[in-house]
Each structure stands twice: as C-alpha cells, then as structure tokens.
Specification:
With 294 residues, the protein is an alpha/beta fold. The chain has 2 domains: 33-115, Rossmann fold; 140-273, Rossmann fold (3-Layer(aba) Sandwich), CATH 3.40.50.720. It has helices spanning 8-28, 44-60, 75-87, 106-112, 124-132, 140-151, 171-179, 199-203, 255-258, 273-292, and strands at 4-5, 34-40, 63-69, 93-96, 160-164, 188-192, 208-211, 229-232, 236-239, 247-250, 264-265. A 6-stranded parallel β-sheet has the order 1-11-8-7-5-6. The chain is globular. The protein starts with a strand and ends with a helix.
Length: 294
C-alpha cells in the first residue's frame, strides 16, 4: 500500500476561491473584510509569514491594515495600536505576530485584543467557548487540520484519533475540537506527550494520527498500523548540505517509510502549512459577516 497524498495546497486554494466568492457578495453589500496586522521587529521567519498573509489578503480581496513597528516599540504603544484596531469598524480581525520582543508581555497584548476580532483564536474567551462547544473563532492550524480531514472525506465520527503533542497552539485545541459532539468531532481522542510511556502502544491504535510534537521524523513506520490516516503538523529544519539553503524541511513523521503503510498522509511542506493562513482568512471573513448583522 502506498498512501494517497493529502494536498494541502490544493485544498487551501479551493477554500480561498470559496472565500473570494463570499467576499464579492459582501462587497456588493458595501462590506469589505478587514484584517489588522501588527509586526514588531524584523524576525526573518515572522517577516516572511506576515508577508505571505498580506499577499493572501490582497489575492482574495481582504483589506489589510499593515503595521510594521520597530523592535524598540514600547508595550504601551503596541497596546494603544491594538485598542485603535478594536474600535475601528473597518477592521474585523486583528493579528499580532508572535513572538514579540522580550520587553513586551505577550499575554497582556493577546488579552487586549477584542474576542470579537480575535481571528487567531487565542483569546481565553474564545478558547473557553471552543472547549465547551460554543460558537467561537477556532485557532487556525487545528481548524485547518479538521478541514483537511473533512475535505479528504475521512470519517472522524467514531474514529480513534491519537494526537502526539499537547501545545496550546495545536495539540490541545485539535483534541478538543475532535471530541466535540458535532459533525466535525465525535472521535475518541488520545493525547500523547513527552511523559507518555511507550508512545508506540498508542500510535499503533490510531485510525487517525496527528503528529504535532516538533521532533523530526519521530513517528516511524513501526509505530503505525496499516491504513492509518496521518496528519503531520511538524515543520522542522534538518541540515542538508545538498540543499541550496543548507537545510530542508521535514515533518514529525518519517514520510517515506510511513507512506507505505498509511492510506492518506500529508507531506511537509505542502500539507498543513497552507491551511493555517487560509483559516485566518476564513475567520476574518466570518467576523465581517458577524459584524455586518450586528
């Protein structure tokens, strides 16, 4: 058996086309979805990521209010900008790119974002609503994982999902989403982490395996059963002198070996990654719709 590849780029592109059509309808009603983007400093990874988000906004018709601030911006100045965006009716979503410089309290900044404009889904109010199953902005990467499964026609209800990783960004929220009594959930979920004894005992039971541990190639072929669906969230740099940049990106899963046992698998890159920005766009459009009827 060789796994069918779940093409995150293609699924993300399809979702963006759907959003573009929805945005056209909103524009006809005089509503332009707006995303406020704040980047403090010049961290290369953050600059690249924010630039990708800004381009994605332009491509589908979202207004992007871009704010690139010097690294020595004070916490007070940043909080004042967030407050301005909270009050600006043209802004439907606010994104503060992390990490922030060490002199700024990230938690204070994230808490300052209005939950109604928290399109990253990190505000405790939205996290709490997600956990109890209420309507809320869902965090982008976990929501992207759910969409990959749904659009690949993977049966979630009744499946045993094993999540490797317990971060607040991926592991915990995706486990919460999958266990909800909803069409996108109803799974039996096991969470494994660094203190789990004999992780392979659990991963071998998985109908769906979600790897989000941040450790390159940790999931090997002998750790999964035949026919498993594998979603690899990991993005790790490994040295590769043959590569132009001197490194290459790999996931948490030994792709070449595991694909010979899995039924479906995401590649790295090109799997989960493209979905993260797409779900940010999705949340921004959804916020615009919500604000239009308030």
């Amino acid at each position: 058996m060789t796994a069918k590849i779940i093409d995150g780029k293609a699924i993300a592109e399809q979702m963006r086309l759907e959003l573009k059509d929805e945005i056209a309808i909103l524009r006809d009603k005089g509503i332009v979805p707006g995303l406020g983007v704040i980047l403090v400093g010049e961290d290369p990874a953050s600059v690249s990521y924010v630039s990708s988000k800004e381009k994605a906004c332009r491509d589908i018709g979202i207004f992007s209010d871009d704010n690139r601030l010097p690294a020595d911006t004070s916490e007070q100045e940043l909080l004042a900008l967030v407050d301005r965006m909270n009050k600006d009716p043209k802004i439907h979503g606010i994104l503060v790119q992390l990490p922030l410089p060490k002199h700024i309290d990230e938690n204070k900044v994230l808490l300052a974002i209005s939950p109604e404009k928290d399109v990253d889904g990190f505000h405790p109010i939205n996290v709490g609503k997600m956990v109890v199953g209420e309507d809320a902005f869902l965090p982008c990467t976990p929501h992207g994982v759910i969409q990959l499964l749904l659009r690949s026609k993977v049966k979630i209800s009744g499946a045993h999902v094993v999540v490797v990783g317990r971060s607040n960004i991926v592991g915990k929220p995706v486990a919460n989403m999958l266990v909800q009594k909803k069409d996108t959930g109803n799974a039996t979920v096991t969470i494994c982490h660094t203190r789990t004894q004999d992780i392979s005992y659990f991963t071998k039971q998985a109908d769906i395996l979600i790897a989000a541990a941040g450790k390159p190639n940790m999931i090997t072929a002998d750790m999964v059963k035949d026919g498993v669906v594998v979603i690899d969230v990991g993005v790790n740099r490994v040295d590769d002198p043959t590569a132009k940049k001197g490194y290459r990106l790999v996931g948490d899963v030994d792709f070449d070996a595991v694909k010979e046992k899995a039924s479906l698998i995401t590649p790295v890159p090109g799997g989960v990654g493209p979905m993260t920005i797409t779900m940010l766009l999705y949340n921004t459009v959804r916020s615009a719709v919500i604000h239009s009827v308030l």
